[in-house]
Amino acid sequence: MTPLPSQAAGGPAPWGLRFKAPAGRLPLGAVFGTIAALGAMAVGLLGLDRLPFAVCLFKGLTGLPCPTCGSTRALGRLVHLDLVGALAMNPLATMSVALLFLWALADFGLLTRGRAIEVEMGRPLGRVVRVLAVTALLANWLYLLGSGR
Question: CA 68, CA 32: separation in Å to the nearest integer?
Fold first, then answer.
């Protein structure tokens, strides 16, 4: 196992998590946040969260919601500042948008100094994060199946 560059220089332990703001990095939080904001504006202005038919191919073929069903409706609820409604539509999408919003704010704040947020973690923590992400996706899907989205 090759250590992370910061481990070799006294950085975080293998389980460690470290947030950095190095100069010259692409501000991905700001980029993704801007794309999400444009998407949210499109959903709100065009009423894409109120279409009378399902756009989801998986749901169209199986009659069951896919793991991301309700994301557009959740975004529409967030545009109208209805957090409870957004969580009911798709909890994982809503929490993901909230985290993206925080990341974008941090990156926009650092943008004036030519810096961007960067996350570094050890391999064991990376594995745990991946398992938690898959577990959250499956739990969200079970919620969507149970709620009849």
Answer: 18
